[in-house]
Structures are given as structure tokens and as C-alpha cells.
Design a protein that fits this description.
alpha+beta, 4 strands, about 10% strand, globular
Length: about 120
Amino acid sequence: MRKLLIALFVTSLLANSSNAIMPVDPNDKCWSYKTGQERNKCWIENRIEAANYCSTDNDCTIANFGCPYGCNSLVNVKKVKAIQDFISELDTNNCEYKCRGIDVKPICKDNKCVIP
């Protein structure tokens, strides 16, 4: 019972903090990184990867989330803003490069966005 109360207390603290968007799963592989910046990059990359799903071609878009998350990420159009907000909340990286867009419309194939 005591462990349950502690777990609930910690969960409520995390949910009420400014870092509420951070995962609290202790089995999350991102926790294995030594620095906060490495963990944040891992969480952001996981969000981008998880956002590549679709039912129709209209669900797919190409997004440029910038350095160091890569250019021309294939994601669900409904997830772009949430990922951008997540990056804004967590990103402290100062690397710079410009993404060069590609002029092609991704399609949905096997519930994943792909370049035709």
C-alpha cells in the first residue's frame, strides 16, 4: 500500500510540473542516456517515429523538425503541431542546419506514410 501511495504521489507531481509531457515509464530506453539533452532527443525522435501512421493518403505529410531531428520526416498531419510543441518544450540544442524540402506528396501504404 505504501508503494502505491508513493507511486501516486510521484505521478501527481510529474503531471503537475512543467515537464508533464515527459514519459514516466521507467522501462523507457531514453532513461538510459546520461544527459538530459540525449534523453530529450530520444523522446523527440520516438514521437516523430510514432507519428508515422495513416489510414488515407490525406493523413500523410512531410515535416521538417530541424536539427538534429532530421529533414523530411513522414508523419501524420494531425501530429505536426504536437511534435513542434514538444520540441519547443524540451529542445535546448543549438545545432544549426537548414532542411531542404522535397516536392512530393507522401502516400499511405500499409498504414505508414511513404514516399511513392
